[in-house]
Design goal:
It is built from seven helices and seven strands. The N terminus is likely disordered. A seven-stranded mixed β-sheet has the order 3-2-1-4-5-7-6, with helices on both faces. The chain starts with a helix and ends with a strand. Helices cover 34% and strands 27% of the residues. The protein is an alpha/beta fold and 210 residues long. The chain has a single domain, classed as Rossmann fold, CATH 3.40.50.
């Protein structure tokens, strides 16, 4: 971990946590202040990611799975573009309880490090914003996202730059491309949490199923 990453971990305490149980407990306590802190921090991840996503998805009726939806920040952005067929999943029931009504069809408490309880080929797209970060969801979840997504469906995601190589996301993305499981259409560095000097890789890939 470089000096910048250490500085970021000190600024954002949740980045210090290692286990799923620790993360869940932290979010449950953070819930009431979470949305305001995201505003104060200038957290642009949801807006940036949805802006990229909309360039590839003119059909507003597609079925979307928001993995790690938290308090619904991605759903709020999607609704601005009239996407309304969205299901959300998150580790923290406290955050799910704070999701505003009218943005998601279904919400479920889910540990995304485990197999997702969804049948194959159910969704036209998976969004995963702010979930691939310190102590959170690991690269193998991308396999599950591909499994539940239809052929030619999209997976749109952010990966905190501090864990991109440390957790092996670089290798996983290459593996999925080499194995013709997806075709990466976009991949670039975004501001993410500008006020905390936190950057993330923002990617969008089209699923390939033969």
């Amino acid at each position: 971990m470089g000096q910048k990453d250490k500085d970021v971990v000190n600024k954002i305490p949740i980045y210090k946590l290692k286990t799923t149980k620790e993360v869940m407990k932290y979010y449950d306590g953070w819930g009431d202040k979470y949305d305001q802190e995201m505003v104060d921090w200038n957290y642009t991840g949801p807006k940036e990611t949805v802006n990229v996503f909309t360039k590839y998805t003119p059909n507003k009726k597609i079925r979307i799975y928001d993995a790690g939806c938290g308090t619904g920040l991605v759903g709020i952005e999607l609704k601005k573009y009239d996407y309304l067929n969205i299901d959300g999943a998150d580790l923290s029931e406290k955050l799910l309880d704070l999701v505003p009504k009218g943005y998601y069809k279904n919400l479920e408490q889910t540990d995304l490090n485990k197999p997702i309880k969804v049948a194959n080929d159910q969704y036209d797209a998976v969004m995963c914003v702010g979930t691939f970060t310190f102590g959170h969801v690991k690269p193998h979840a991308l396999n599950e996202f591909i499994r539940i997504t239809k052929n030619k469906g999209l997976i749109c995601f952010t990966i905190n730059e501090g864990i991109y190589k440390e957790y092996g996301f670089d290798k996983k993305i290459k593996e999925l491309s080499d194995n013709n499981q997806w075709n990466v259409k976009e991949f670039f560095k975004s501001d993410y949490i500008a006020s905390k000097d936190v950057n993330a890789w923002l990617g969008l890939a089209e699923v390939i199923k033969k």
